[in-house]
């Protein structure tokens, strides 16, 4: 494996209208071998969410305000989050490997300002995971 780089755009739409809204993510990544057995990659993404999505996940309706005690909140569409991640892959042999991932995500703008986040949650979250890989 040599160095690799990429970028992309993904658009996700709820076609069932269960949750409403649209997400558009812009991403970039770069990876390079450390040695013959290890490969490291870094990635970042920025996600834009429509007003409908923001209202579904970060808004507080009148009924929700009454039930929770949180202030009513009607966010507009905008950038929802920024993520930074790192992956490390170790190859035991030609087929089997071990993968580790760590990711930090920060909610932005009106998502971070939501009473759900500001009063009850946290705009920062982390993901750590491991997995086994098999190459054919």
Gyration radius over CA: 19 Å
Percentage of residues in strands: over 45%
Number of separate strands: 6
Helical content stands at 10-25%
Query: Which runs of at least 5 residues are low in confidence (pLDDT < 50)?
Result: none
* Helix vs. strand class: alpha+beta
**Terminal residue distance:** 15 Å
Number of helical segments with 4 or more residues: 4
Give the H and E element order. EEEHHEEHHE
How does this model look, in words?
With 136 residues, this protein is of the alpha+beta class. Helix content is 18%, strand content 52%. Strands 1-2-3-4-5-6 form a six-stranded antiparallel sheet. The two termini are 15 Å apart. The model has no long low-confidence stretch (mean pLDDT 94).
List the helices and strands and how they pair.
Layout lengths: L3 E10 L8 E12 L4 E12 L1 H8 L3 H7 L9 E14 L4 E12 L1 H5 L1 H4 L5 E11 L2
Antiparallel strand pairs: 1-2, 2-3, 3-4, 4-5, 5-6
Summarize the structure.
It is built from four helices and six strands; from the N terminus they run E-E-E-H-H-E-E-H-H-E. The protein has helices at 51-58, 62-68, 109-113, 115-118, and strands at 4-13, 22-33, 38-49, 78-91, 96-107, 124-134. The protein is elongated.
């Amino acid at each position: 494996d040599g160095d690799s780089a990429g970028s992309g755009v993904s658009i996700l739409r709820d076609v069932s209208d269960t949750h409403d809204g649209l997400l558009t993510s812009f991403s970039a990544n770069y990876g390079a071998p450390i040695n013959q057995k290890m490969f490291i990659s870094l990635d970042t993404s920025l996600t834009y969410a429509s007003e409908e999505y923001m209202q579904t996940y970060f808004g507080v309706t009148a009924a929700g305000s009454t039930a929770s005690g949180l202030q009513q909140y009607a966010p507009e569409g905008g950038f929802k989050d920024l993520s930074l991640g790192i992956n490390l892959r170790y190859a035991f042999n030609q087929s089997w490997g071990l993968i580790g991932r760590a990711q930090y995500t920060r909610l932005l703008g009106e998502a971070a300002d939501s009473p759900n986040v500001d009063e009850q949650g946290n705009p920062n979250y982390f993901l750590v995971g491991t997995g086994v890989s098999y190459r054919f």
